[in-house]
Write a structure and sequence with these properties.
Layout lengths: L3 H20 L2 H5 L2 E8 L3 E3 L1 H14 L5 E15 L3 E14 L5 E16 L2 E10 L14
Parallel strand pairs: 1-6
Antiparallel strand pairs: 1-2, 3-4, 4-5, 5-6
């Protein structure tokens, strides 16, 4: 079972992941993953160097998008595991500000499904999968051991 300290550290990991990606700090974003970590959003990217390169390319592409100021929000976080390995799942909402109208709109709704490991006293994503089209089956929800 996860300790309260581990649960809080994992919640902090989720928050840092969102804040770093929104601010375009892709080195610190990539540090939210293990060295060989996988981010599977619209594409599958593995390893910190590849994650940084992917993130920088996405940040540069923002200039051509019709919105600005993206913010990712996680809710309904479920985390289960032990002192070394955890599985997490949460809802994800992405809100942006439209450049032409200044209106805030939701561009993405999804569910993250995560494998998280503790290495050298620090929690990191080993594998992070975003489901945008269809949620995973309820059997994928982390259950208490």
């Amino acid at each position: 079972m996860l300790s309260l300290e581990d649960r809080l550290a994992i919640q902090g990991l989720y928050a840092r992941h969102n804040i770093f990606v929104d601010l375009g700090d892709y080195e610190n974003w990539a540090n939210c993953f293990t060295e060989d970590g996988i981010s599977h959003t619209s594409t599958l990217t593995q390893g910190r160097a590849a994650l940084i390169a992917h993130g920088r390319a996405r940040f540069e592409a923002r200039a051509t998008e019709p919105w600005t100021y993206p913010q990712h929000w996680n809710t309904n976080l479920v985390i289960e595991g032990n002192e070394e390995t955890a599985y997490g799942m949460c809802y994800m909402t992405r809100v942006v500000k439209m450049k032409d109208t200044g209106e805030y709109v939701t561009t993405h709704l999804g569910i993250y499904q995560d494998e998280i490991v503790k290495q050298n006293g620090r929690w990191a994503f080993k594998k992070r999968k975003l489901h945008l089209d269809a949620p995973p089956p309820s059997s994928a929800i982390p259950k208490r051991a």
